[in-house]
Amino acid sequence: MSSSLSDAELDALVAEAVVDCYDEHEQFSGLFIMIQDNLAAPFDTEVLGVPVVVRKVDLRSSGIVAICHRGRLRQAIGILDLPLPDPAPDGAQWIEAYRRWAGAR
After folding, report:
1. What is the spatial distance between Cα 65 and Cα 24, in angstroms, rounded to a whole number?
2. Does a structural domain hold residue 44?
3. What is the pLDDT of residues 17-27, one digit of tens each?
4. What is the DSSP secondary-structure string of 27-96?
5. I need a labelling partner for 77 at 20 to 30 A (CA). Which of 17, 51, 60, 68 fits?
6. Which superkingdom is the protein from (predicted)?
7. pTM of the shown model
8. Which run of H or of E encompasses 100?
9. What is the largest CA-CA distance in the chain?
């Protein structure tokens, strides 16, 4: 997914998320909170061609994940690996801000 936001706009989002953070772990947590608070869930998307519903995001040892449901099945997918629908759900710009932050590490 390519971002419709400029680098400066993404940098501003990252700065907003990490404003009071002292280290990388706190920055990571700040970005997670912004995604959790702003990403409009649930939303429909496809993972490997299979329709799923993203119900929420979660913080795991592996990173920020989207909790995807299909019927009674549930799977955590890394938020940076999650294909977003077009149009993307409200708040998806925070995923892009996290992608920019993670790429700078």
Report:
1. 18
2. yes
3. 999 989 988 99
4. HHHHHHHHHHHHS--SEEEEETTEEEEEEEEEEETTEEEEEEEETTEEEEEETTTPPPPSSPPTTTHHHH
5. 17
6. Bacteria
7. 0.89
8. helix 93-103
9. 41
CB atoms inside a 10 Å sphere around CB 14? 21
Residue pair 92/32 in contact (Cβ under 8 Å)? The answer is: no
**CB 36 within 8 Å of CB 57:** yes
Number of domains in the chain: 1
Residue 87 in tokens: 């149009």
Amino acid identity, residue 3? S
- Which tops the pLDDT comparison, 3 or 21? 21
Domain hosting 44: range is: 7-103
Q: Is 66 exposed, middle or buried (0-12, 13-18, 19+ CB in 10 A)?
A: buried
